[in-house]
Structure formats: C-alpha cells, structure tokens
Amino acid sequence: MKLSGAMAGNIAKAIDPDDVLTVLGITTEIATRKGRFNAVDHVSFTLRRGEILALVGESGSGKSVTCHSIMQLIEKPAAIRGGRALFRRRDGTLIDLLTEREATLRKLRGNEFALIPQDPMSSLNPVLTIGAQLREVAQRHLNFSMLAATELSIELLRKVGISDPQLRLGQYPHQLSGGMRQRVMIGIALVCKPILLIADEATTALDVTIQAQILDLIRDMRAGATNMTVLMITHDMGVVAEMANRVIVMYAGRIVEAGPVDRVLHTPLHPYTRGLLNSVPHSSEIGVPKRRITPIPGMAPAPYDRPHGCSFAPRCSFAKRDCTEAEPVLEDLSNHSQIRCIRWKELCL
Amino acid sequence: MRLESERTRPLISVRGLCKHYPVRRASGESAVIRALENITFDVFTGEAIGIVGESGSGKSTLGKMILRLTDATDGTIQFDGTDVTAMSEAKFKPFRRKMQMVFQDPMASLNPRLKIRSIVGEGLTVHGIGNNQTREVLVRKMLGQVGLSEDAIDRYPHEFSGGQLQRIGIARALIVNPSLLIADEPVSSLDVSIQGQIINLLADFQKDLRLTLLFISHDLGVVQYISDRTIVMYLGHIVESAPTTSLFSRPIHPYTRALLSARTRLDTSSTGSKIMLSGEMPSPASPPSGCVFRTRCPYAISDCSKHIPVARELAPQHTFACLRDDLPWLT
Fold it and tell me: Is there a single domain that holds both residue B68 and residue B144?
C-alpha cells in the first residue's frame, strides 16, 4: 500500500529524500502468562543514506524486537501496536513497512533491505547446500542465471573470508563451523547489495580476527557506489566506536540516550550509558594503568514488572525520589542528541 | 610479593602435553584431531594466568586436561610437585578438591532439579567435609560471599538470572577451598553490565584467597584486566607467553600482533591500521607442516613449513615461538 491521504502526504513531504528509514513511535507488545508489556515502547529514529547507526542495550532492552518489527518479522505472542517505519525504496518511493502487504515485503526482504540474524544455525536451511541458499537470492531477486548466480556466490564467499568457496558451495550448513555459517549468512544478506542492512549482533559470535574482516567488509559496502545504510545491533562498545556514526542506547524497551558516537562515548549523559561504558574492561593501550571497573549493580527489571517512573532508577546511583514518580520524557538536545533522564543537567556539571 | 619458595616450585607444571582425538570420517578413513601439541608452561601459586586464543585453539581442552576431565595423549601434568597425569581416579580425588572449575554456561552446568543447597554443598558432601549442620552454615556463608541472599539456598536454578547463576557456579567451586580455579569463558554468556560484576568478584577472590586462577577467554580486554601473565594459543600450540603488561605493550609473535590489532577499541584515535589476517584457522585434523600459523602469517618464509618453531626467550618469562629473527619489530 502506497502512503495515501492528506496526513500521509505531509509526512512524505517532510521526509528528506536521503532518509532511508524513518521510524516513528514504533510500539510492539508481547503477551506472556505473567502479563502484557511493551517490548518496544514508542521508539523513533531516522537513518540517513550511508550512515551506520548502532542500537545498543542488554538482552531484554528491545533492540532486536525493534529490528524485527521494522522488517515485519513479528509473530505471536508479539504484535505491533503502533507506529510507522517509512522506507525509501530504490525507486525513490516511500512505503510504510508496518502496513505493507506481505507479498510486497517478500520482494523487498533480502533485496532492498536485508537482515543478518543473530543465530546462523537456525536461519540456514539444513537440507539445502550453501550454494543453493546463496543462489536462490540472486535468482529470485536479480533474475540471474544459474551460472551467473554461482559466480556471484563464489565471489561473495571469498569476500566474507571463506577459503575454498567452490568446495563450500556444495556443502551443507552442518559441515561448516559456526563462524563460517555466520559468514555465509552475511554473504546471503549482501547478494543484492541492499540499500539497508540490519545486522543483529552479526559479529558477536565470531573470533576477533574474523570479526575484523567482516567489519571491514561492511565498511567497504557502505563506502563507494553501494552506499549501504546500516542499522547495527550490538552490545560491544568497541564495535560501536569503530563502526557507527550515531548510537542509540535502549533500556527496558525505550530509548534512553541517542547521539553522535563521539559525543556518547566521550561524554555520556545517561547514568545507564555511563554504567555500560564503565562495566567492562576495555583493552587499553600501552602504559595505561589498570582502572578498576565499576559494574552497574543489580539487574534489568523483568519486563512485566517494570518499576514506576524511570526504569533504570532502581539500579541508578544518582536516583532521587522524583525519578520514581513519573516516567522521564525523551528530551531533544541541540547537539543531535536525545536524553531520557530528569537529572542529566545536574549530573553533567 | 611472592615468596621465593613459591616462585621456584610451581603449583602446576605442564610438560610436553599433547591431546589427539582419533576420529573416523563419514568416508570411513580415520584421522587424528590434534587439539593440543607439546604444551609446556608453569603456573605459580597466587598467579592469575590468562589463556587467550580463538575457537579451535585448544584453550578449553587445556583447562579440561589439567582437571583430568580428559586424559592426556602424551606429556605430564604436575600438581604441587606430584605427577597427576596417569593417577587413578581414587588417588586423584584429594587433588580434585584442590582444583575447581567455573563453566561458561551456568544454566547448563548446574543441575536444574537440585536446590541451591545441594548444588553449592555437593563438593562438601563428596569430600566428606563437615556434617549436615556445618555444611548448611558453610553454604549460607559462601552464598553471602558471592553476593547472594541466604534465602537462595531453598530455590532452584531456574529462579535465578544468568549473572546470579554464575555467582552460584563460583560459590560451588570455591566452597571446598581450592588452590586452583579454572574459569572457562565465565562471563561470555552474560550481559555487559553483569559481566563486570562477575569479573570483579573473581578478581577479588583471587587476591583475597591467594587463589591461583587460570582464566580462559577470547576476550582480550577481560584477560588484560584480570591476569598477571597471558598465554596465547593458536591451533593447539602456545605461540607466545608473557607477563600481561609486556604482552600487550610489546607483542612479538605475528599472530599475537594480529590478534591484538584486530580487537575493537573505544578509543579509536589511537588505533593504528589493523593487521588483517586472510582466511581462517586450518583444521586441527590436517594442520600445516612446520609452524601452524604460517598459512595466514604475513611474514612466513619457506623455512616456516620445514621446522616447528621452539619457544624462545625474549626476556624473563616472555617466550615466543617463531623461527624468524629478522621481524621488523625485533630488530
């Protein structure tokens, strides 16, 4: 369904042609035996062409559900309750991914936008060869011949650092190591040179030397003619620092801080962001003395039992009584940043 | 600082340790997986040793072998001066109490049908320490030391989060008062904010109890934080071993250099160009001849395929296994 009506027209006009994805107030609810809760609660952000945006947070923060909602990969017991995800197609038209028909989405997934999922074993088909799964994308979306699709598959496997690609094409997922399977998934996602790549902890399970190869590849795809836009879900602040232009920090389903990477990493405003940065030792350079890490106390609240007011307050060393009274709003700051904390100004001083 | 006698007599002394797994391929031909080859190192009392390497490097196998969870193909392991390599299970039992392990996945390593009382107290029962009453007291005390409330004792594993379960795993290991703790990727399954809590807990125990810690991890940041000395492994071999500060400030082996340069850093301003390794680790069923790293090494020469490099000393305690004397950063 194309956007229609006067309001939709206004939205379409307001969106810059270089905005590849505009997410407006997306809300996804999950029903469990213990109750209903918003796994994603009014999350909004924009992705500019060629930009890498990192979505950071712990398990249960809603970062994966956000991405799956955008791709309409949400199934019961989860349901999208509201919001828009406006995607600029290759031909320049704007569509709302949340209301689009499944038939259209099928043409777009893996083609104009692609997902690198977290778990490669459950994403690859165990009874098809690697080659068949790579070729399928090129044949379906690009109308490649069998031969051309095979050549492209070999080239992609080589790009993701898999040795002996001809041999691998004839093998089945179980014959490959975990790291290799993950790289095959990355290869599949890149077949059609998508406009938008969503990488859900794509390199988390990989060894560091392989991770470096993959991050390099994603950087390459972003530069040059492909000009790919990347939405990257990660919990690794090092990956954020090296890859992203902007970062969004999520906690308990909501955005708590957003901004340019340098600003967020060097002067984090939200106590949770600070906590995240201080809670793991970072490989330091020569001569830097060991600094004791200060982990965040406690743990994230159960989603069906979130505290009143600020969700982070029970773990926050700066929490006052005001913090537990009302949910803080997400404030827009001048430096392309957003912050959801009533005390951020005092804490900055 | 360490006493001289402790310095000279290691708590663990590993000499020429090998582990080969015979496997039969689907095609019927038999092959040998060379998981560990000629591993030699010492660990002194109170030391925290980090073992780093990528998947398939043999680091977990090494941890299991020291605990005799798997038998050696060749070589010896001495614990506190006694050769335990081929000891019978009955004779080995008192040593078991002295060496404990914390596993990667706390949910999978704790029996879901037992209460925390039995899980944490199991070691006491097995080794006949105390009676029912004193055991209960010890378990409660241990739970407090790992930061859990005493009422945890009557609950089951599924009632706890991953971080809490890892605390229980640590309590289970430490309650028998071991001198050696082997932690195999103890934080990699945990959330970032929880990882820090567990790392600090282990670091504090290590210092307070003068525990000897063997910390196995792929996370270089964590290893740099927690260990005094670091051993780098690649495809079943030790390629470099050094005091942690020397290893991170002056890595010598080309693999160590590549590994360190590949890690991501928060401070991107100081990041030099990364050393990109091509390809991936060869299969341990058919390792390259000579130096196992040569197929990916930017500095490999023809001699590297002919000789297996032996460990050479760069400085006291800093050894590396590379044939080349003319590496640019060595001269």
Answer: yes
Q: ipTM of the predicted structure?
A: 0.83
How far, rounded to the nearest angstrom, does the alpha carbon of residue A206 sit from its chain's CA centroid?
A: 17
- For residue B104, the domain's CATH number is 3.40.50.300
Q: How distant is the Cα of B199 from the closest Cα of chain A, in angstroms?
A: 9
Task: Compare CB distances from B224 to A209, A283, A295 and report the shortest one's residue.
Answer: A283
Range of the domain at B195: 4-227
Q: What is the pTM of this model?
A: 0.88
A170-223: per-residue pLDDT in tens?
A: 999 988 877 788 889 999 999 999 999 999 988 887 888 888 888 888 888 887
* Contact yes or no for B225 and A293 at CB 8 A: yes
- Does any domain span residue B70? yes
Nearest partner of B197 among A183, A292, A115, A266, judged by Cα? A292
C-alpha neighbours within 13 Å on the C-beta side of residue A7: 1
Q: CA nearest A261 in B: which residue?
A: B266
The answer to whether position B235 is within a domain reads no
Q: Which residue blocks in chain A are alpha helix, DSSP H?
A: 5-14, 63-70, 102-108, 120-123, 130-142, 146-159, 165-169, 178-190, 208-222, 237-243, 261-266, 271-278, 344-348
Outline where B115-253 has alpha helix (H): 116-126, 132-145, 162-174, 192-208, 220-226, 244-249
> Does any domain span residue B166?
yes
CA distance linking residue A45 with residue A263, whole number of Å: 17
DSSP-based three-state secondary structure for B153: helix
